[in-house]
Structure formats: C-alpha cells, structure tokens
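quick one, 228 residues, struct below
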Amino acid sequence: MNTILSVKNLNKTFRIYEPDRTIKTLENISFDLAEREFLGIVGASGSGKSTILRCVYQTYRVEYGEIRYRSVRYGNIDLARAADREILHIRKKEIAYVSQFLEVLPRITARQSVENSALEVGASYEEAQASAEEMLAYFHLPSDLWDIYPHMFSGGEKLRLNLAKSMVKKPRLLLLDEPTASLDADSKKLVRGILVKLNHEGASMIGIFHDLDFMDGLCNRTLNITVR
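---
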C-alpha cells in the first residue's frame, strides 16, 4: 500500500524567554502512514502528541527532520520546508485539522463556516449549502443555531461545529486532536460513524484520543510517545 505521509527524525523545541531556557518537546520521532490507514497516537500528557499534529499541519515549524507528504498538486513534498503558499493550498484542499478549540472568523455564522469549507474544496454554492445543512444536522446542531455566531455555543457545540467544518471537506489526510474531548456518549457515536465512513472512502487519519475505548477497533495501529 502506498505511503501518504512519512515523518523522519522529527525534532521540535520551544524557547522560553522568562526564564531563558529551551524545552525539547519532540526528539527523533519517525513513522509512516499508509493510504487509508488510521494511526492513533497515545502517551502521557506533555509527551508531545499534539505537537506532532501541529508540525504536520505546519502550525509549528520544526528545527530538524522531514515531513514528507504525497500531495495531489505538489507530489512528494516536505511540509517542513514547503513555502507558505504551498501549505495554504494543502490546508484548503487536502489536509484537515480538528482541534478541541473552535477557530472561526468572528462575524461568520455556523452555517457559513461549514459552507466556506465546502467551497474551498471546489463545491458549487448550491452543493456547499446542501452539504453544510446535511453535516450540521448529522452532528445534531439544532437548526436555530445555524445562523448565529458560534462564540455563543457551548463547548460541545463548538467541537461538533469544528468536526462538521472538517468532515464536509472529505480530506485526504485528517488530523484529529482530541476530537471527542467534551462530547457525550451519543455524540461520540456520531464522530465514530463518520470517521469510519471517511476512512472507508479513502481518507488517511492520525488521531489523539485519551478515550482508549473509543480507539478500540477504529485505529489500525498506535504510536506510543514517551515523555523525554
């Protein structure tokens, strides 16, 4: 099976100026991800699990190592060395990141936020409208919330909106950073169902989950990160 992502000797440090010190978060992390594979990352708090995803998504730049991604547009590209315009294109069209924290423009409604995600991957306006409504309904966001600003949502509603924004794009590579952190049991079932569907349709995935029961039968294998 073809490899879609190959991380080699990934290192990441953070500089703290008060007091003046450097903290190494990741040291020589390496793994491959095959097409259609679902990799779960586990480890203690502070081991750098979220940092790995943010390095792949290029929220964080790395000091050393390679993050080779097989892009539809750019071929075998090292995300750690890619230009900003290349990263922006890949984020819009190919890689989606789901955080437990909502990041949307302040004057964009929930419906518009999901519609915009669909438009980014080439949907027509009519298709984006239909897909957004379908996804918002799937995640049990009440229709009376669709046309208001998400800063008024509860924590669970914000997370479900985050999921809807990413899932509507049907990305080639999906990065999941605690996607079930503040969800109830019924909402977790919805997340699991759509992850299975996207995976069967061809999406490759990397997920961080503290709920090990949720991972059982979902991830093909796990990567255990130890605290340095």
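Residues 185-200 form the longest helix (16 residues).
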